[in-house]
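User: Continuing from earlier, I have the next pair ready.

Assistant: Great, send them over.

User: Here they are, in order.

Assistant: Folding the first of the pair now:
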Amino acid sequence: MVVCAKCKKVLPAGAKACRSCGEPYHSVVKNKDLLKPKMSLEDVVQKTNLEVARAKMPVKTILLFSLLALLAVAVIFVAKSALVIFDGSGEEYREKVFYDPVFGLMWAKAKSEPMLYEDAERYCKDLRIGKMNDWRLPTITELRSLVKGCPATAVKGKCTVHDVCYMPECRKEECAGCEEGKGAGEENLYWQPMIWEHTKGWSKGFYWSATERKEMIDSPDAGKDRMAWTVSFLTGGIEGKDLEMWGHARCVSGPAPVTDRLKQYFIFMK
């Protein structure tokens, strides 16, 4: 191979001078080692692996800082969203609302006078706490989530009355609840203590659910007296009551979507 001594370009065979720079033929050099690689393939692979290994630590560091930055942005977004949605620091909501993070439900702590079923529905519908106006009567399953200390009638208890089993036949012996006045709540009620407002002496009353107790279509009692399932927190018992009887209302809102649970946590945490 013939190479120009000046510009180092390869000359075609028989050339008298370099076509690029005009250098005469006598200045060319013959060098077989010009195209010989300076490193073997094994050396190149080894050097590349070493450089990649050295680069692992910076990459991990960059990923860590990126993750922390994203987390900080998420926290700021959630906190600001909470302030915008609930119009303030959340103190009013923590004072008047109990948040259940397991079911994503928000419960109004306020007590209610004894009332008929339709009045209880209207009471919850008209309830306003801050900007929250989507209150309603709870289903029997949701109302059972408030039972504390009586395993048989808690949500996963042996009592089979729930949202999809609401006929009289669904009420088994376990639905009667536990021993009267042995709960851990105020006045020994079977609900979480230090949360609910209630009038002393009304503890023997019951609370309405939105789940009506319905007879089978072919039952002779079908279409007669309308009844709804209720919970007595004195015993934790579940029983159907005539809609013309006087009971209490514990209003609920939600459940909040899973994607909003973090927001709810920021709002209601102390």
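And the other member of the pair:
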Amino acid sequence: MQNEDQLIVSKRRFLKQMGYGALLALSGSQSALAAARHMSSTPHPKKAPIHTHTASKSHLSPPKARVRSVLHTHPIHHPNPHAIRSSLSEPHTPLAYLSHKTIALHNINTGDKLHLTYFERGRYIDEALQEISYLFRDYHNGAVHPIDPLLLDQLYEINRHLDINKPFHVISGYRSPLTNALMHEQRAGVAKHSLHMEGRAIDIRVEGTQLSAIRNVALAMQRGGVGYYPSGNFVHIDTGDVRTW
């Protein structure tokens, strides 16, 4: 009888302990559920608004970069090529990733004028390049040759850093081999194998902008050859080897 009583007491203790454990487990589950409900009911912090800027195609220059160029069209106080090169190397949108590139040109020999977008959505626009090539034609005989798009990119970059609001005056664009040979015989400084014959060179000036400012930016870009002709009132740029004269 005593053994049976002890067995009953042991069972009661065991059941009592199991009951406490179940209550504790139930209590813990309810606490976790309450915490989850509290977290789901708490509003999430608001994200900061994202501001975007849409470029306007009606203006020659794209939206200004965070860091402005050290040069401006007016006034120009002896621009330093080293300072320009530093400005060009500062963070700004690379040309290859711009949404569009627009350029304004005026061929002073034919009177032709263009103001158009030649690059958009990651590609050069064939129709625009054809129009530009025609404007660059050899005005002596009407010969037309495709113009190197990288030459247009140089003009675009010069405009971008000088904030030019007037067209580039095209003094000389494409030259046929015959025209170049005649000029080589008649004028000093005309190369026999000029890049003008390949559509990779242009002689330019801009009304109201000093030639030295155009030259200094072109030199700082290090994209090709740069010739400075103050007596002829133009600057030569090309997409050949980096050099200057």
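Worth noting for the second one:
The first strand starts at residue 100 and ends at 107. Confidence is low (pLDDT under 50) at residues 18-84.
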